[in-house]
């Protein structure tokens, strides 16, 4: 009466355990084969077949070279890639150019000798 509606009983679900006609060695072989099949099914999800062709932008991965850079090497692309600052701007703004730079082509800047003569 105490165990009437209990669900915590042990049920032996091992392969070949209920069949008395199978030897113990055959039971172990059947269990081993079932375990291997179970492991194979879990791992086969990630295995790709050899006949499947992987593509990237319409090209197979075998055709794409490892070091091929599809981007063009125009000057505009290089400026965009490096922040859009031109060489002239960088040299004038960062390395002594700009308002305080000494240049002979400016009309407002006069040398010390010119100032004394006036």
How is this structure best summarized?
This protein has 118 residues and is mostly helical. It has 4 helices and 2 strands, in the order H-E-E-H-H-H. It comes from Pararge aegeria (speckled wood butterfly).
List the main descriptive attributes of the protein structure presented here.
118 residues, mainly alpha, 4 helices, elongated
What does this structure look like?
Residues 63-73, 103-118 have a biased composition (Basic and acidic residues). One of its GO terms (biological process) is maturation of SSU-rRNA. Involved in nucleolar processing of pre-18S ribosomal RNA. Has a role in the nuclear export of 40S pre-ribosomal subunit to the cytoplasm. Its main location: nucleus. Pfam families: Nop14. With 118 residues, the protein is mostly helical. It has a domain at 1-48. Helices cover 35% and strands 3% of the residues. The protein has 4 helices and 2 strands; from the N terminus they run αββααα. The chain has helices at residues 24-43, 75-81, 87-94, 112-117; strands at residues 55-56, 59-60. It has a two-stranded antiparallel sheet with strand order 1-2. A hairpin with a 2-residue loop joins strand 1 and strand 2 (59-60). The longest helix has 20 residues, at 24-43. It is elongated and about 125 Å long. The model has no long low-confidence stretch (mean pLDDT 73).
